[in-house]
Specification:
single chain, alpha/beta, Rossmann fold, 2 domains, 5-stranded parallel beta sheet, 4-stranded parallel beta sheet, 9 strands, globular, disordered C terminus, binds phosphoric acid mono(formamide)ester, binds norvaline, Orn/put_carbamltrans, EC 2.1.3.3, transferase
Length: 319
Amino acid sequence: NETLKNRSVLSLMEWSPAELQRVLYTARVMKKEPHSPAFRHALEGQHVALIFELPSTRTRVSFQVAVESLGAKAVVFEWNQSQLGRGEPIRDTARVLSRYVSGVVVRTREHETLQEWRKWADRPVFNALTNRMHPFQVLADVLTIWEKLGTVRGIKLAYFGDGNNMANSFLVLGAKLGMDVWIASPEGFQPAPDVVHWAHQEATLTGAGIHVTDDPQAAAQGADVVVTDVFQSMADDPELASTKKSLMAPYQVNTALMSLAKPTAIFLHCLPAHRGEEVSEAVLEGPQSVVFDEAENRLWVQKSVLYHVLADSSAVLGG
Ligand code: CP
Ligand code: NVA
């Protein structure tokens, strides 16, 4: 079954629930047997470029490790140290790189930049974060949920704070997998209206629940998974930072908010975290926090997706 083969990953909107499940299943197999010879040479002879317009720790390192653990080589470079930084058009860069490497992982400010890249590239393009979507992060998150709670369908996932790339991505993922997704954000900073609309439509097919509210308590009530992210994202207008900080203060995930969730609830954060802003020190470092298992899972889901998209002879697991 090779439906993901040679496909770009800009968001998870285009994936079927079965494709999502296959990627998660392979990720678990890879994690269980990290030295399995089944994957060590899967991408041998290939090169994958990793390009960053914005800073990164997890994405940069975990993608490089994922690429190299499949037998390929990673070519990592900064946007501004390439000719992109001097204005060479995306359409030229995308076509040139397609002659050298078998895929490109790109972190860029504007989602439209990545769409332009995909339009001109002859090779798959992987979204390493844009202002609109962060698909590999929510794949890692759902793997973590599956590992910790044993199930995904029907669970209540509550996200607090800025209606940013993470909030948009949870709407997409949750709608696909039949989760009960709650996004609690202040007016003016709620998720992208077209993504919310899309999620409602998708939910009619999957039985998901989609709720966007400005009421953090309602969202927290009985939640299985509590999530937050920074109030100010890398691609955001810096002039909005102080307004956002005061508007979003009531959405901080702290012990009081956590106490409304189920006692078995887990806490997720894509990191980096700002202690005392979107999350309290006590929650981030507390017993319900699984943020480092979550960070580890970036590696496994990326390895799985690279394998499904780029491996030549897909002796693909899971049928
Ligand atoms: N969570 C995440 O994407 O982290 P980095 O910005 O460090 O890659
Ligand atoms: N929403 C954050 C996520 C960082 C991994 C940002 O875009 O900066």
